[in-house]
Design goal:
Blueprint (H helix, E strand, L loop, with lengths): L3 E15 L5 E17 L2 E12 L2 H20 L5 E14 L2 E15 L2 H11 L4 E8 L2 H29 L4 E12 L7 E2 L20 E15 L2
Antiparallel strand pairs: 1-2, 2-9, 3-5, 3-6, 4-5, 6-8, 7-9
């Protein structure tokens, strides 16, 4: 998709400005432009959870450890899926200010660019784990490639806008005083939360319906130029 370039800010500073050892500078103009592109999300991220409750703390820990070991082995047997365990914790369950039971839970984060494979895996893992959330992100490799392309577009737009401003003020050229290049606008969308937190999970669960979307990647270029050619 062709990048979208926007000019965000144009300010003129008249008079004389002192800039350290470079001596006085005149006719400084601040510019800011951005280049953005809509990018199809390519990385499916799923968070699952296993939770058990029992009268003895050791019993809950054993059950969670067994379920998570099974889930990890199952996930790692599928090519192209990254699995990572998260948030292991055990908490007491109170009744009338007395500990009635213990609850242990742990989360599993799965990610893959292969939506079909990961979706099928979820159907298997739901035999013993529950889905906490599902979301799409832009993979680091794709985001880096898009940003590299947008940097060129944004810098070209900055130079073009600087030339336009210089001509509009009747100046033959300009010099760059300072320039900053950065990224903004990309935040992974919030994952879709699931209510499947029951202590007992069904052995047969249909695969979830998952659809990705597009996200905006933006590169910002801002800086100051000095108009020349009096």
């Amino acid at each position: 998709m062709k990048p979208i370039v926007c000019a965000l800010l144009l300010c003129l500073f008249g008079g004389v400005v002192h800039a350290g050892d470079d001596g006085p500078q005149r006719n400084l103009v601040s510019l800011a432009v951005s280049a953005s592109e809509e990018v199809a999300s390519d990385l499916l991220v799923v968070r699952m959870m296993v939770l058990h409750e029992a009268a003895k703390q050791a019993t809950t820990a054993d059950r969670v450890n067994d379920d998570m070991a099974w889930a990890l082995a199952t996930a790692r047997a599928v090519a192209g899926i990254k699995a990572q365990t998260l948030d292991y914790r055990t908490t007491p369950v109170y009744e009338d200010r007395q500990i009635r039971a213990w609850r242990t839970q742990q989360s599993l984060r799965l990610e893959s660019a292969d939506t079909t494979a990961l979706t099928a895996l979820l159907g298997t893992l739901q035999e013993r784990l529950a889905i906490e959330s599902i979301g799409y992100e832009i993979s680091p490799a794709l985001r880096e490639a898009i940003e590299q392309r947008l940097i060129d577009s944004a810098i070209a737009a900055f130079r073009g806008r600087a030339s336009q401003v210089a001509r509009a003020f009747g100046r033959a050229d300009y010099g760059i005083v300072n320039v900053n290049v950065g990224t903004s606008g990309y935040r992974p969308p919030p994952p879709v939360a699931y209510a499947g937190r029951a202590l007992a999970m069904k052995a047969e669960v249909a695969d979830p319906s998952i659809a990705g979307g597009e996200q905006t990647v933006t590169v910002d270029v801002n800086g100051t130029i000095e108009l020349g050619g009096d």
